[in-house]
Write a structure and sequence with these properties.
- With 89 residues, chain A is of the alpha+beta class.
- Helices cover 51% and strands 22% of the residues of chain A.
- In chain A, the strands form two sheets. A three-stranded antiparallel sheet of chain A has the order 2-3-4.
- Chain A is globular.
- The N and C termini of chain A lie close together (4 Å).
- By secondary structure, chain B is an alpha+beta fold.
- Chain B is 34% helix and 29% strand.
- Chain B contains seven helices and twelve strands.
- In chain B, strands 4, 5, 6, 7, 8, 9, 10, 11 and 12 form a nine-stranded mixed sheet that branches.
- The longest helix of chain B has 17 residues.
- The chains are: A alpha+beta (89), B alpha+beta (241).
- At the A-B interface, strand 2 and strand 3 of A face helix 5 and helix 6 of B.
Chain lengths: 89, 241
């Protein structure tokens, strides 16, 4: 899976904001607010295709937790992106 | 059709604007640049872009000169982040040492509120730009500049003011002013900023917004159209120290 649009991601004040760029700027005219763990996952999907288990593996390595523990964060976040129709699977 | 070119100074940037219609020349007359320095960048609008603008607005009655002007300012806005600047949809006033921006969705009444302030404070107050100022950052601090693009009332002057306060205007029967956390209004702020579609200027715009959030106080002004609205807002903003 990957993100449906190309985003730039940056901290603005206390929030991490993602906005679509290029032609996607017209198709997705909005922004996504992220926390730090969401930003980590979002950046993986913004750069390349990745499966749920690949993301969980990367997340577990980043935060020093097991893949099972990582999935507790990764799976709901991917569901959130699906609900907002931001994922291509 | 003859294409003219003139050099303008906007937000301390030297910009060459190529125009096909007289509208732009008349509109920008106060901002002509007569110095010898080279341009920072050049803007020209094609007939196709004017036609596209006509389609977007859905009104074929708009004058081509007006549409050329709209397209020109948007193109300028897309380049601004590369010069630590951006376009903000707001009315900005300069009053007693502060630069105060009033932000609202179109039609809510930011011009009405701005004119209330002007009616009360008269010569104490300058309307820098009534609709779309350029905000440029120096050493992290935001400065709002007058530009020729200032809404149908053309409320503007060729000056700059350091932006100190950002106020979101909301209609209300009563008047009140609240200091707010900018993070609670980040969506509203983002909606009033021209976000370029290209990656580098878009990223830069977010960086500039971060500086704006760090350097300005944020307020919500809930107001009606009585003079009290401006007085209460002034007393609260200036009483805050």
């Amino acid at each position: 899976m990957r993100l449906k649009y190309q985003f730039v991601v940056r901290k603005v004040g206390a929030k991490i904001i993602a906005v679509a760029v290029g032609k996607d700027n017209e198709r997705f005219n909005g922004m996504v607010k992220l926390n730090t763990s969401g930003e980590f996952i979002f950046n993986i999907l913004n750069k390349s295709n990745a499966s749920e288990s690949q993301i969980a593996f990367a997340f577990s390595a980043q935060y020093g937790i097991t893949e099972e523990q990582a999935k507790v964060v990764v799976v709901p976040f991917l569901d959130y992106l699906r609900q907002r129709e931001l994922l291509v699977e | 059709m003859v294409v003219e070119m003139a050099r303008y100074l906007l937000a301390e940037l030297i910009i060459d604007i190529h125009n096909r219609y007289d509208f732009l020349e008349r509109q920008c007359a106060d901002y002509l640049y007569n110095g010898n320095a080279p341009e920072d960048f050049t803007v020209r609008v094609t007939d196709v872009e004017i036609q596209q603008e006509q389609t977007i607005t859905g009104n074929v009655d708009y004058d081509c000169g007006y549409l050329e002007s709209v397209c020109t300012y948007r193109k300028i806005g897309m380049k601004l982040p590369l010069y630590d600047a951006m376009l903000l949809h707001a009315a900005v006033i300069s009053c007693d040492g502060k630069g105060i921006a009033f932000l609202a969705r179109s039609g809510v009444g930011k011009t009405t509120h701005t004119l209330l302030w002007k009616r009360i404070f008269q010569e104490q107050l300058r309307i820098v730009n009534g609709d779309k100022p350029i905000v440029r950052f120096f050493d992290g601090a935001p400065y709002a500049y007058g530009t020729p693009w200032a809404g149908k009332e053309n409320l503007q002057c060729n000056e700059r003011v350091q932006l100190t306060d950002i106020c979101f205007i909301e209609r209300s029967l009563d008047n009140s002013v609240l200091r707010v956390d900018p993070m609670d209004y980040i969506d509203a702020l983002m909606q009033q900023v021209l976000l370029p579609s290209e990656m580098v200027p878009a990223e830069k715009t977010l960086e500039l917004l971060d500086k704006m959030v760090s350097n300005c106080k944020f307020w919500v002004i809930r107001c009606n159209v009585c003079d009290d609205a401006a007085m209460i807002a002034y007393n609260t903003i200036f009483g805050d120290g």
